[in-house]
Structures are given as structure tokens and as C-alpha cells.
Amino acid sequence: MKKITNILLSLACVLMFASCEGFLDMAPTNQADSSTCLTSEHDAQVMLNGLIYKMGSSSYYGRNFMLYGDAKGGDITIYTGGNPGDALYYFNHSASSGSYSGFWSTGYNCLLQANNIINNIKALQEEGTDEDFDEILGQALTIRALIHFDLVRLYGKPYNMDKGSDGIAVVTSQVAASAKLLRDPVEKAYTQIVTDLIEAAPMLSKKVNRGYFNYYANQMLLGKVYQYMDNQSSALTCFENVINSGKYALYTPDNWVDSWSHEFGSESILEIAIYPSEGDLGTGSLGCYYMRKGHINAANGNFNASKYWMDIMGANDVRWGIMDYGHYYGDTSQDQRIQDRAAYGKDWCYKYSGSTKLAGDKGSSNYTAVNIKVYRLSEAYLLAAEASLSTGDRAKAAEYLNAIARRDRDYTPWTSGTVTADAIYNEYRREFLCEGKLFFEACRLNKTITFEDNAYYGSTVSTRRGTTIDRNNNLCRLPISIDEIHTNPEIQQNPGYSGTE
Fold first, then answer.
1. Gap between the Cα atoms of 452 and 303, Å rounded
2. CB atoms < 10 A from the CB of 273, how many?
3. How far apart are CA 165 and CA 443, in angstroms?
4. Torsion angles phi and psi, residue 374, rounded to 5
5. pLDDT per position as a tens digit, 76-95
6. pLDDT digits (tens, 9 = 90+) for 208-247
7. Pick from 237, 171, 154, 167: nearest CA to 201
8. φ and ψ at 439, to 5 degrees?
9. How many helices (H) and strands (E) does the chain have?
10. Taking the mean position of all CA atoms in its chain, how far away is CA 445?
11. Tally of CB atoms within 10 A around 462
């Protein structure tokens, strides 16, 4: 999905509405009508391209949102403190330091852009336009739902924990710069998310749509939202819409590793495209954060797999093929610890470098401009297994689980008599290491997360206060940043954080 020209046009258009990224400090957007920017399907497509491009930035899917889901999930650890992103692992957050306010500002900036598309298209439709905007409108509604879903998981308690607690400000219209919006309950956010997804579904193409949101991306998101709401039967319907479509195919054990060196593989339901001249973060990319330190000069080596993850992996699991041994160059003081680690297994993940040979995913030597895989068919199978088990169909649960578990060549097939929720969860852990998902799933399922703080140098984690955490800990929600509080003093701060610290 090469879109450089369209992005430049889109940014020029979008800047008419948003002069900065701050949610409550933005240029007025209630002074434009449909004729000022979006007048045709082409204009709408340009704006959609710019929105998806923005979602691939470092403060969202391009890096930090993915790191958030991994660093807090217990299946990765850190070599030592003091590196970018370690505040996520340590849960070292306050309103004034480590707030990761970029999630808030980027999320609401993207919501602004999505609302501009949605509301301008609807205005044109009310005026009787002859152009067909349905596909783009469906994508924008799905994106708006996804952004609300991501934000409410970052700042609000899980729906099945306390749906009446403070979530986020639900924004579906153009907001004036002077607006002082307060946070709505978690339940209101989920209600809006479901409403948007249901409205969008019939508008969306059922064709494979590389780099864009189609009907099946919509169904993946809706299924996940239903699971967060403990509506497993509706979730199963959504996941089976994807599985039974025939549009996507699971990677075989023989081609699973190689799949990472290609963009838009047979499992990819939704990828956000990253190209060398479009969103490439270079040494600040996900690949360089996860790459073995010392592999090349650009390798940050900030995060690597924990022993807890390696302990659930079978010796002949094909997924070891995307991992590299934990040798650290240039640190002779740690030789024995490193030798022990290397003897145990591979702990550096190369999914976002394309392969351990830094192949990238576009047939070139560029190993940092690698697409972000948001939804893969494997996830539909594993979440469908969970939903099937929850609704009493143990045979179907085992069938869906076995489809993924066979990536361990020594696995014993699960049956209706042996399949368990823990088996499905552990398979999810094996499959989705470093794909930005585990912490969110652990909170949904009310899991206790254990961290391997003594993997290398050892860590004293005063902020997390121990090697375990669960969703009852206030640190599992990000604080509202001090900048946002200064702009809007009445906005509700999350429990456990003072307004000015």
C-alpha cells in the first residue's frame, strides 16, 4: 500500500482541523462544513490514508502501544534498567513522569481525524451526494471503535471488573478547542464501540484489503470487544465469521517462520503498513527494541523473552525459529550469566526484523520498516477456542486449539476431555510473544502476572513493589498526564495517582 502522495495531500487537509496533537488543546473543528475539505470519494480516501499513517506512529501502533502490551505481560524481561521503555516494564508511571501521554494525545488526534471523515461523509450523504462513500465510512467507523477500545483499555478498568468506573471521554463529534470534556464510564465507551462496529459491518468489503480495514478486521475487533464484555457466544460468532470465510489461511508449521519475512501473508487480517519513507522508525523501531543487543550497532536489545515464556515452549516448537540466542557482545563482566542464559534457550525475538537474518518483510535489506500485524488468523482460532470452551462446546475448543498447537511438532493433541482454559491461554502466549497483546488479555482474564526481574543484572522495582501484579493494582491503568490536568482541571485522575505528582 504505497501512499506517499496521498499522505502528503491528507496531511494538508487534516491540518485544517488539527493544529496540534493535544486532545483538549486543539484547533476548533466545529467551524468547517463538508465543502471545505472532503467533497469527493478521493478526498475521503486521502484523509483515510493519513489517519492510518498516523496510527503507525511511534506513540501508537508503530511502537509504544505494542511495547505496552508486551512489557507489562510477564513474558518479556529487560537486560538492565535505564533504556527507553523500561518504565513500562517497571510500571513506573505518575502524572508528571512516565505518563506516556502520547497515547492520549495521539489517540484523540486520531479520533479527531476519524470524526472529520465520518461526520463530513454523513453530511454529504444527507445532502444527497451521488458518490459511494460506504466503504470509507465503514473503515472510519471501525477505526473510531478501535481507538476508543485501545484508549479505554489503557486508562480504564476492564469492563468485566468495573464497567461503571471512569473510562475515557467518548468523542463522536467535532470538538471545540474550549471544550472541557470529562471521562465517561467504561460501559459508555464499550456501548459506542459496539454501535460503531455494527453500523460499519455491512458497509465493508469482504475482499482481502491489504493495509486497510475490511469486514473481517471489523469482526475480529467486535469479537474481541464482546469477549471483554464476557459475551462469549457473540464473540464466537464474530471469530467464526473470519475463520469460515475462506479468505485467510493458517501458516503451516513449515512456513510459519518464513511468514515473518513477507508482508500481508495468508494469516494477515489487518496490517498497518510501514515503508522506508513512510513511518520507518529506524533504530527506534520495534525490531531494534527486541533485537539481540550487539547483533548490529543499531540493536537496542531493550526487551527479551523471560524464562517464564521459554519454560512453556517445547523443544521442537517451530516458533523458536524467529528467536535468537542471548549472547551479549562487549560485556565480559557478565560472561557466566550470559553463558547460562544462552545454554537455556533463545530469548531475543525477531518478528519485527523479518527474521534472525534481518530480512525485513518486503524483500529488501531494510529490517526496520516492517509492517505492524494487528490481527492474524491465529488469534481468531485461539479466541474462538476460548469462546467455544466457555459456551460448552469442548470438542470445537480442542479443534481450534489444535490448529495452532501443532506448531510444536511434539505436541499431544487436545481432546474434549483434556482441553482447558489454561491450555488455550498458554498457547496464546506461545503464539503472540512481542505482538503487543498479552497484558491486555491477562487483565481481561484476571491473571496474576509474574516478572523475571533477576534475568540478568537483577532489578529493584520500587514502583511495582514485587515480582507479581494483577489488575486490582492501580498501576495497571495509566495516569492522566499533568499537562492534561492543567488544561482541564476537572478531569478525573485515576485512583492511585495524585493530580500533580
1. 12
2. 23
3. 15
4. -85, -45
5. 998 777 778 889 999 999 99
6. 999 999 999 999 999 999 999 999 999 999 999 999 999 9
7. 237
8. -60, -40
9. 19, 8
10. 17
11. 8
